[in-house]
Amino acid sequence: MISEKMKSFVEGSSVIRAMFEEGKKLANEYGADKVYDFSLGNPNVPAPVEVNQAIKDIVDSEDSVLIHGYMSNSGYEEVRKAIAENINKRFETNFDETNIVMTVGAAGGLNVILKSILNPGDEVIVFAPYFGEYRSYVGNYDGEIVVVPADLRDFQLNLAEFEKLITVKTKAVIINNPNNPSGTVYSEQTILELSKILNQKQEELGTDIYLISDEPYRELVYDGVEVVYLPKYYDNTIVGYSYSKSLSLPGERIGYLVIPDEATDSEQLKAAANVATRILGFVNAPSLMQRVIAKCLEVEVDVTPYNRNRELLYNSLVEYGYECVKPQGAFYMFVKTPVGENIFVQAAKKYHILVVPGSSFACPGYVRIAYCVSYDTIKNSLPGFQELAKQFGLMIE
Amino acid sequence: MISEKMKSFVEGSSVIRAMFEEGKKLANEYGADKVYDFSLGNPNVPAPVEVNQAIKDIVDSEDSVLIHGYMSNSGYEEVRKAIAENINKRFETNFDETNIVMTVGAAGGLNVILKSILNPGDEVIVFAPYFGEYRSYVGNYDGEIVVVPADLRDFQLNLAEFEKLITVKTKAVIINNPNNPSGTVYSEQTILELSKILNQKQEELGTDIYLISDEPYRELVYDGVEVVYLPKYYDNTIVGYSYSKSLSLPGERIGYLVIPDEATDSEQLKAAANVATRILGFVNAPSLMQRVIAKCLEVEVDVTPYNRNRELLYNSLVEYGYECVKPQGAFYMFVKTPVGENIFVQAAKKYHILVVPGSSFACPGYVRIAYCVSYDTIKNSLPGFQELAKQFGLMIE
């Protein structure tokens, strides 16, 4: 009795989520401290103290009908204004509240914008390795995913292949910057070339191509690397943002879309995003959390714990003989497997290590390690990674 | 550049929401106390004090990573268990946590279940007058809405017409109990007959038909009327619930679905609802609010303010000559217009009275008055309603 489309979704359901459930089971069996669950991007760093303080201040001082009530489907005007001003200050842009649509996290935002633009059969280009949920989101609106193969050297964008895949059916391109699962931050050079290709193709084909920049990891970068702001490089950019990772609020489902005036049919697009928010059943982003993040826009994100994890894990894995491009952002490491990825994933489970196979990101031969866990989890997992390295011939016993 | 489907949605966008925006404009112009905005079901009664207390208690005493983090897509197990037990106690049912899926309000829940069951072309039957958003929700999954004409005598269900409209393509029936916009509560007799017809048709056609009971207004009833619990009457019932109205939390987007074991393909359906929650971009119902409502399950809803509004408004309108079936639930009154509804709606604006035309609910010749406003708003709007009654010949001047 369930729909045909859902049958395949249920059968091929998210490997990541299945791992998460398996991790909970293992933790019950062996104790949480004996299980090294690197499967899910669920930050272990608590939300900054300012978040809970803002929650209490708002609840104590503001009108209940206002803080828990309906507002415009796109969100509270004053919240959107505060966000626009914050973006303007940081990136020298010129947005106002009409450019911002509050969303139920980045996943909600991506669904809203894809619902707004896709006709059945429209193509959406993604770059491997990519967050597998994009396939579901595009499928929700009967779009077709077109995958650009990975550039395995450094996981920047494979632009030569990209150019070949753009057709009149290309309605949008999604990039994830910093990238899940590789942790790559796209360089300014990469973005300049990407924009150039897109502009050329728009002109050549007489079409418009939206570049959707999914940026939940924007704040999580290391070694002083800069994440460039895409609307400044390409007019048809839509930004999807989320506070899930930067403020450690993934369960609260709060984020926003930026729809610049420079984007084609910008006014229609804003109206469509407003309506899509309503009819997809979001109705609006959670009200209290909208007001909370407006009070936390200046909160500095402390990436120290993630960076500490990154250094220990990267240095250890390289020492054991694993191949890996050092991630510059997010909290994922994408490691080449010495054997077929599924063999490795299964073998790792014997050491209670849970990692996600690269094929979930259209990039087989790798595994993703989400290092948003405690330092002890990293430390205690290392003997297991070392044993696996020996077992598969990366280290001599 | 926006999708074809969205173009029509944007053009024919919600009349109710348009009114809401118009109301805000009028309020800016004339002052909020001079505008009688009856357009939106946004409760003016504050959330019970227990809600804000629970928010503060949780934030002060529970682990930040837990309260703001990811959990299973269907929601926290302990929250679902608490809800199941509360339902069991109230309605003598036998649910557990596996029967409950936490949702982003009732709108989110309806989208999740429709995504889970609908193939393109499947028919979903609704009863006029009905909440117009059902048309969008069904359209999201390429289903077809089939409308049963209203029973204008008392707005119970027109079951003779309903029976004729059931075909092999009927995948689901949605009822809204208590009803928006009429305020009708369906009697046990109505539900018994509805179930009988559904069971007969299932057998006759060899199909399964899900009955989706959308119940955000369950707690808002007057004169001691009882809202029967549908899963006890018909096995293939799915309940959609929301705390938007009962706890005055419409902006927070928190509700749940009940999927009974007795429903056909129940296990598949639960799995599909879990996946649909994820891939539609909800990911999960807002985490803090899940924990808050688990602490507020025993909170009594005070309907006194709404009842006071209902009595004043109903008695006054009847005195002025308007025709109206006295509502037994929700906070809406559905009033017959003495002239074409659009003429009436426009005329009412001159008195700063905003009401929604009945055609938004597939029932022209009526207007909906959402009386979830202050008592003063009701009182001060009455001269306007009286003038309209005189203008259109209901009262002799």
**Approximate strand percentage of chain A:** 5-15%
- Count of runs of 4 or more consecutive helical residues of chain A: 14
Give the neighbour order of strands across the main sheet of chain A.
Answer: 2-8-7-6-5-3-4
State the end-to-end distance of chain A.
55 Å
**Quick one: CATH class of the largest domain in chain A?**
Alpha Beta
Q: Which parts of chain A are unreliable, with pLDDT below 50 for 5 consecutive residues or more?
A: none
CATH superfamily placement of the largest domain in chain A: Type I PLP-dependent aspartate aminotransferase-like (Major domain)
Q: For the CA atoms, what is the radius of gyration of chain A?
A: 21 Å
User: Average pLDDT value of chain A?
Assistant: 95
The most extensive contact between chains is: A-B, 83 and 82 residues
Number of strands of chain A: 12
CATH level-3 fold name of the largest domain in chain A: Aspartate Aminotransferase, domain 2
Biggest sheet details of chain A: 7 strands, mixed
What proportion of the residues of chain A is helical, as a percent range? 40-55%
Overall structural class of chain A, as computed from helix and strand content, comes to alpha/beta
Compressed to H and E, one letter per element, the order of chain A equals HHEHHHEHEHEHEHEEEHHHEHEEEH
CATH architecture of the largest domain in chain A: 3-Layer(aba) Sandwich
